[in-house]
Amino acid sequence: MLRLLQLELQKLLLNRASKVLIFISFILPFFVIILSSLRINFFGFFVLELGHYGLFNFPIVWHITTFFASQFKFFFAIVVVSMIGNEYSNKTIKQNLIDGLSKKEFILSKFYTIIFFSAVATILIFIICLCIGLYYSSISEPHLIFRELEFLFAYFLKLVGFFSLCLFLGMLVKRSAFALAFLFVLFILEWIIYGILAWKIDESTADKIQNFFPLKSMYKLIDQPFQRIAISKAPNGQDFMYDFAVHWYEIAIVMGWTAIFIFLSYRLLKNRDL
What we know:
Blueprint (H helix, E strand, L loop, with lengths): L1 H12 L2 H12 L3 H6 L2 E4 L3 E4 L10 H10 L4 H16 L2 H7 L4 H34 L5 H4 L4 H24 L2 H25 L2 H8 L3 H7 L5 H8 L14 H24 L3
Antiparallel strand pairs: 1-2
Keywords: Membrane, Transmembrane, Transmembrane helix
Organism: Psychroserpens algicola
Protein name: ABC transporter permease
């Protein structure tokens, strides 16, 4: 495992464009800190300070930060599809196989890299959440601070699933630009199918079916926190009106799609004449 990971990291770090994109991918989540300290003066009428509205208190900070940080995953998605595109354009995939790397090991090296960068990103988000939460929150009890830590696991799984999809698309079309275009087409296709189902059956059933789609299932791992924020600020504060939790079946669906994408990537490479 370490040998395959080291081999892949060596390729990425020798590529200037990949290094820049990886750096951007790890820097962008820190903008959540800027968001938490944002102070907007509305022409002297009132001052909006997000950090002082309880939005970054424990345990809600885990939910809010992971949701916003997951929106920056597209930059590393470019790195993932570029990994495959460069292999084909530079003929390194054929050379690696000639040098003794099996097709299974080739795919695993990409998957291990995905896991590695997803884990690093998750650790960074953990540090960011902890720093923001300790600064703004008055809560000091460990069991309350770490009460919703499952959002971090959902964030990690969301990255792994999304990048595995990018890996499969890269293997499918062999070109970075086309792979990213296919990603956009898949997004549109999911909503077209949802629209047809809602029209032919009903909206409630269409919603349930849509939750099994690849991109939608990854999005559903961390639900949008805006409604939760609104409820928490309501006078009666009824949390049960909105289900924002990370559920085991949502995790199972994304893990299932991840396994499918890695398997299909391997089958494509195995059956392809290089």
